[in-house]
Amino acid sequence: MPSPAPAFRPALARLADYSAAWAVAALVVGVALLSWSAQVSIPIQPVPITLQSYVLITLAALMGWQFGGLTVAIYLFAGLMGLPVFSGGRSGLGMLTGPSGGFIVGFLLTALLVGWLQENWARLKPLPLFGVLALGHLLLMVVGAGWLATKVGAAAALEKGFLPFIPGAVVKTVAALATVILVERLSGTGRPR
Questions:
Q1: Whole-model pTM above 0.90?
Q2: Range(s) of the domain holding residue 23
Q3: 38: which of 11, 46, 87, 142 fits an S-S bond (Cβ 3.0–4.6 Å)?
């Protein structure tokens, strides 16, 4: 019986393993990127389209589920405690009950799913990795629109909180795939087997 392949260790997770200083630096940069990307937005109502999902799935694939999940959890904690890191410089616990609440919760779920699947299944293979990144986007959109449906109804949530996000999700998924592969190659990660 063949032994199972060892878990794939993404580039930024390996960097964090190197030393505590590198781990803290990667966490700070990850939280800063999530915060910055939330401000790059198309301000539609009731939920803006941001660059954040690209950064989220890219970081998750490069950090793995534990380190990526921790990064997103710190970002969410900062925003919920009042730092202006959410889209439009918003913050506070009230964000969880507003129209974006499902997307905010979905960030953590998406990071955990994408990171885990990258480490244990996709392992940097382009087609599976594309599927994982697309699944991450889909999960985020479903959780976000599902929560929005409790506020505005299912039809309005589909029309305003799901369908407008599809074209951007496709573009951001392709961009995330290219970014992850490039960063992994630059970090010396070998070709997937």
A1: yes
A2: 11-186
A3: 87
